[in-house]
Design goal:
197 residues, alpha+beta
C-alpha cells in the first residue's frame, strides 16, 4: 500500500491538526508551543528561505560535533556537517511547520535538522546568533568519521574513526582523550569480567 504522506511529511490535509494521520503534529519536536505555555526562547533560526522558523530554549546543546561521513558531505555539499544535539522539547517551530520536508534525494530543500528517537540534530549555521559569545556555546566536542575527511582540521579535538565513543580515536587526537578512552574501556571490561565470575 502506498503511503498517504506527501514528500513533506504531511498527509494532504492542508494543515489540519486532528485525526490519526496528524498525531505527529502534537508531539515534540513538531508541536507548536502556545503563548500561554512556558517556552523560554534563547535562540532563533530558520531554513535558507525563511519559510520555516524556530526557537531554541536550551543555552547549550547537549553536544556538538563535526561529522565527516560521506553522507553528510553529500547532503550538505560541504566538507563536513556541524551538528548540535538537543532534546525534542528544546525546539519550538514558530512558522512553516506544514512546509517541513523529510529528506528525499529528488527534493530541493535546505536541511535544518535530523530527528532521532529521542533527540534532534540541528545545524547551528542556521541559527541567528545575536551575540558572538552565544556561538561559543555550540563549540564542538569532537570529530566523527575523521578518516573520510576532505581536509585536515588541527583544532586539538578528539577525532573518531566512526561514531564517537563507540569507535577508535585516531591520528592527532589529544593524548589525554586517548588515555581517558583507554581507561573507560578498561573499566567496562573489568565490570564485564566481574559479572561473568
Amino acid at each position: 500500500m502506498a503511503s498517504t504522506y506527501r514528500a513533506n511529511g504531511d498527509n494532504g490535509d492542508e494543515g489540519a491538526t486532528e485525526g490519526d494521520l496528524n498525531e505527529w503534529k502534537h508531539r515534540a519536536p513538531y508541536r507548536i508551543h502556545h503563548k500561554q505555555e512556558h517556552f523560554n526562547a534563547r535562540y532563533e533560526g530558520s531554513c535558507h528561505c525563511g519559510k520555516v522558523t524556530y526557537q531554541l530554549s536550551r543555552e547549550k546543546p547537549l553536544d556538538a560535533k563535526y561529522c565527516h561521513c560521506t553522507t553528510c558531505q553529500k547532503i550538505h555539499g560541504a566538507p563536513f556537517q556541524w551538528a548540535a544535539i538537543f532534546h525534542k522539547d528544546d525546539i519550538n517551530f514558530t512558522s512553516g511547520i506544514h512546509d517541513l520536508g523529510w529528506y528525499e534525494s529528488s527534493e530541493k530543500t535546505t536541511p535544518i535538522m535530523d530527528e532521532g528517537r529521542n533527540m534532534i540534530l540541528l545545524f547551528p549555521t542556521l541559527i541567528d546568533f545575536k551575540d558572538p559569545a552565544d556561538r561559543k556555546n555550540f563549540e564542538i566536542s569532537c570529530h566523527m568519521f575523521y578518516p573520510r575527511r576532505v581536509l585536515d582540521i588541527n583544532d586539538g579535538k578528539p577525532k573518531w574513526s566512526g561514531i564517537s565513543e563507540s569507535s577508535d580515536l585516531i591520528e592527532d587526537s589529544p593524548q589525554e582523550a586517548v588515555n581517558e578512552l583507554k581507561r573507560k574501556r578498561q573499566e567496562e571490561e573489568n565490570k564485564k569480567d566481574d559479572k561473568d565470575e
